[in-house]
Amino acid sequence: MDQTKPHNFSLPPINVGNGFVELGALTTLVGSTVAAVLVLANQGPAGIVWGSISAFGSSSVVKACASGATPGWLRQMFNLRTSISDSALGMDLPLSPSFKLARTVRSGMGHPMGVSCDVETLAGASPLVKDHHACSDVYAFDHETQFLLDGLPATPPGDAPKVYTYYSYPFYRSHSTLYQVSLICFSLVKYLEVYFLYRGSAAMAILSATPFTFFLFAAICLEVNEVVSSRRPMEIDGQLDIVSGTIPSVKQLGGSRKVVLGATKIARTSIWWKLIWSIGALLYSVSLIISYVLLGRQTTEVVVMWGIFQLVWLVLRILISHLKEFSEPTAGRPIVANQIDDLSAPMKLRLANLTFAVALCQVHLHTRGLSAYADDSYSTSQIARMLTMPNMREVYVLPRGNVSTVQLNVAAVIGDVALSSAAWMLGSNFTPIDLYDSCIIILNSILSQNQPHRLIAIPAVRVMTAKTTFQISVKGSENAQPLFIPRGVAGGSEVRDREWMYWIPCQSGHWLQFKSSNLSSLGKHMAEVVDDNQLTRTLEAGNLHLSLKNSLEVMAIVDISRKAARILLSILT
After folding, report:
1. How far apart are CA 498 and CA 490, in angstroms?
2. Does the record carry Membrane as a key word (predicted)?
3. How much is the pTM?
4. Residue 29 pLDDT greater than 70, yes or no
5. Which range among 155-159, 240-244, 494-498, 554-558 shows the weakest confidence by mean pLDDT?
6. For the residues of 298-323, what is the DSSP string, one character each?
7. Angle, nearest 10°, between helix axes 32-39 and 300-321?
8. Distance of CA 185 to the CA centre of its chain
9. Which helix (DSSP H) or strand (DSSP E) does residue 90 occupy?
């Protein structure tokens, strides 16, 4: 009986690219940067057509489209960020405290070079909601914004800032319509490739035409929009507020700064551009992969024809990128420098928005950690409502009689990061270390003869107390040695039981002292009334993980808090 021979099931060999995969990889070294520059529209709408016209340099095209379609944190996370994408789109991260992915990315970044606020988004956010994406710390400005900033003189540290705004003047964006339209029309020669490929392989022709046609249609739509926009005067207020410079932090002094209110947002960050790049990346990737697979099954004539066309488009792409230098569309726009006192009330509040955005940026860099400042206030509208001259007090007026405790209802806290940010923005010489233990505490008091206003704001002292593992392990206070820690040193894993401790000045050398459990400052707290001697004894024990040693040092911080409060009030009133 004959035995049936087993069948061998195997896939047919796939000849990918017919040798052009290696050639395509080689040509990536030639002109790939040009392709990325053009696709990211650094030379106008026509650039996205010519950037994607050749299959050679495809990896740069796909990467450029992907970087354009993704937000900055995702661009950095997936290594899509390049100097070209920075120039076209900038690089920023939202300052929302709860955005964990942005926080993770930020931990691997350097020091930010500025902070920006989207006025429209910020105006629509509730003052009680901190998790909006209206404010960002900037690690690279796009080339249009950088061009604007490069033309402005910086304000040295300690000097009153000049606030730059666009002059109220009808300004029209420059746009080379003839140049853009000519390049778009010239790109139609791509259909010669489609025609000749169709005679040999309809599939190859369709795959070559599909992504090109999409980018061509997108470029036409974008060019029409550019032409229409160039015929209308630009908005005087671009709804983007920026401060650039060396942002202050506990580890770094603030440097020179430039403040611009009403800068123009670049169109490339709009949802339409992101949609174009998203679809383009998908179409380009799919058609390219299928094309290389199909090339292995084509005749020699089709393969050679396809390769010659890609080389021609590659050369033309390089030549066109050098044909004309793309000029800045807003070059020559008049801008005026304003003193803070000359700003209108709404513009002052926008300057305050920037100030509190800098404070949020400091929080992300602070040695105490983000969680320590979760209860602090950063909303300009909320703070401006609470921090008014009628509400300001230098001391808390204690009830008459011998009182040992007072119940407080904390409505808001303006912390050291907000005060040091205001000092830097407004030209004070106070540094983050000077204001490290300063704060303004806003209490919701009961109407009485002693406290005539329901909301009272008092410059006070806030320190972060802690215990080290060594202190916890020592049994008995007689064995513990006093330990005083310099300001700015938060400690590492050896630190336990971190708590905020507040000292609010009262009349006749008394203080209100209370701790906040779990770093939660808002709400009701039972404060203990202590005098200078009791406060000094508490500090001299040296078991709070602080630098302070007596009540005189605490009073000196109160004086600094009062001066910082006056600085902050100057942009809120």
Report:
1. 10
2. yes
3. 0.87
4. no
5. 494-498
6. S-HHHHHHHHHHHHHHHHHHHHHHTT
7. 70
8. 39
9. none
